[in-house]
Design the sequence.
C-alpha cells in the first residue's frame, strides 16, 4: 500500500471523507508534519511546539500524561531511543515512541497497511456500507477492546469508524486482523483524578497539535463534526455528568455508520445545530437499512440497546461481550483478504 497522507491521517484523526471534501481544512500554521520512516515501517507525526499556544500545549501535555498512565514510558531525547515493544495496550493503539528533538515532538506509530474501518466505507454510493458478516466481526472486536479500556477506568470519548484501526493480530500473519482504538486525543479517566464525580467536560477538539480543525462552512459533502457521535448526556454537561455509557452510545452509532457507510448527521452545517438536535431528541434512534439489505433482529437489538437515550439502560462492554451476536462475531475470522474487495470499489 502506498503511504499517502490520506492513509496516515486516518490513524491520527485528520478527518477526510473523500478528496473533494471542503469541510475539513488543514492547519494554516503547519503545526503538524506527517511523514514516513526511512524503512517504511512507521509513520511519524511531528509537532512544532513553538507554534502551539498555551492552551494547545496544555492539552498536548494532558494527552501525553494520559498515554503514560495507560502504558508507562518516558519521552526520549534524540540521544536515547528505546521504543515500546508492544504498542497495543488495553485496546488502544499507542505510539511506540515519543521523542523530543529541540522544539519538535515526534510521535512514532507502526504503519498499519489495513488502515481504519472508515477507509472501507463509500458514503457517496447508494449502498456504501459493509455486509453484516463484516460489521459483526469488526464490531465484536471493538467491543472487546472497549471492555479492556473500561476495565482500566478510562473512556475514549471519540469512537467512530475513523478511529477503529485494523492491524495484524500477530507479527507472523498479517492477513488476520484485530481492531484497536486510535484517535486518542480525547481519552480521559472516567472520573477526573481526585474526584468521585463523573466527567462534565467536553474533549478539546481543534487544538492545533492534533493536526486539523473544523470550519463552519456553508456546505459539506460526506463529513460531519465529532459531536455527531457524542451521547446526549455528554452534550448536556449537567451535574450528573457522563461515563462509560457515553462510549457505548458512540459505539452503537458507529455500528450504524459501518452498516450504512454514512456518518451521523451528514449535511448538518454547524456543530451547534447538531448539539440542538441531540438535546431535543426524544425518540430512540432507528437503524437505517441500505436499499436491498435488511439488518438481522440481533443486530437491531444491539443497536437499540447501545443507543438508548437513558445511559443507565445501556449495556456495558462486558454485557455486550456476553451476547450471542457478539460471540458469533468474535468467532468469525477477520482477514485482510475479505476486506480487499471493498478497497477496490
Sequence:
Amino acid at each position: 500500500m502506498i503511504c499517502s497522507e490520506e492513509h496516515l491521517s486516518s490513524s491520527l484523526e485528520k478527518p477526510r471523507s473523500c478528496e473533494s471534501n471542503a469541510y475539513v481544512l488543514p492547519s494554516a500554521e503547519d503545526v503538524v508534519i506527517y511523514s514516513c520512516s526511512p524503512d517504511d515501517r512507521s509513520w511519524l507525526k511531528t509537532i512544532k511546539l513553538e507554534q502551539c499556544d498555551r492552551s494547545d500545549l496544555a492539552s498536548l501535555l494532558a494527552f501525553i500524561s494520559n498515554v503514560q498512565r495507560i502504558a508507562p514510558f518516558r519521552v526520549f531525547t534524540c540521544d536515547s531511543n528505546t521504543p515500546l515493544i508492544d504498542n497495543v495496550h488495553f485496546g488502544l493503539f499507542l505510539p511506540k515512541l515519543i521523542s523530543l528533538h529541540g522544539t519538535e515532538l515526534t510521535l512514532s506509530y507502526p504503519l498499519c497497511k489495513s488502515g481504519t474501518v472508515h477507509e472501507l466505507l463509500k458514503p457517496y454510493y447508494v449502498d456504501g456500507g459493509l455486509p453484516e458478516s463484516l460489521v459483526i466481526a469488526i464490531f465484536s472486536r471493538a467491543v472487546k477492546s472497549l471492555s479492556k479500556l473500561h476495565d482500566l477506568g478510562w473512556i475514549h470519548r471519540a469512537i467512530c469508524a475513523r478511529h477503529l484501526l485494523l492491524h495484524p493480530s500477530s507479527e507472523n500473519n498479517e492477513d488476520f486482523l484485530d481492531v484497536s482504538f486510535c484517535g486518542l486525543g480525547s481519552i480521559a479517566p472516567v472520573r477526573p483524578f481526585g474526584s468521585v464525580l463523573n466527567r462534565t467536560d467536553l474533549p478539546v477538539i481543534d487544538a492545533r497539535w492534533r493536526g486539523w480543525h473544523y470550519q463552519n462552512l456553508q456546505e459539506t459533502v460526506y463529513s460531519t463534526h465529532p459531536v455527531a457521535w457524542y451521547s446526549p448526556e455528554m452534550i448536556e454537561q449537567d451535574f450528573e455528568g457522563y461515563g462509560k455509557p457515553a462510549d457505548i452510545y458512540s459505539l452503537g452509532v458507529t455500528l450504524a455508520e459501518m452498516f450504512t457507510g454514512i456518518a451521523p448527521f451528514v449535511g448538518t452545517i454547524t456543530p451547534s445545530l447538531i448539539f440542538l438536535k441531540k438535546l431535543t431528541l426524544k425518540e430512540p434512534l432507528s437503524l437505517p437499512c441500505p436499499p436491498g439489505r435488511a439488518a438481522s433482529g440481533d443486530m437491531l437489538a444491539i443497536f437499540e440497546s447501545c443507543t438508548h437515550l437513558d445511559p443507565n439502560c445501556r449495556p456495558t462492554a462486558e454485557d455486550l461481550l456476553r451476547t450471542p451476536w457478539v460471540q458469533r462475531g468474535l468467532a468469525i475470522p477477520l482477514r485482510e483478504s475479505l476486506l480487499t474487495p471493498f478497497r477496490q470499489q
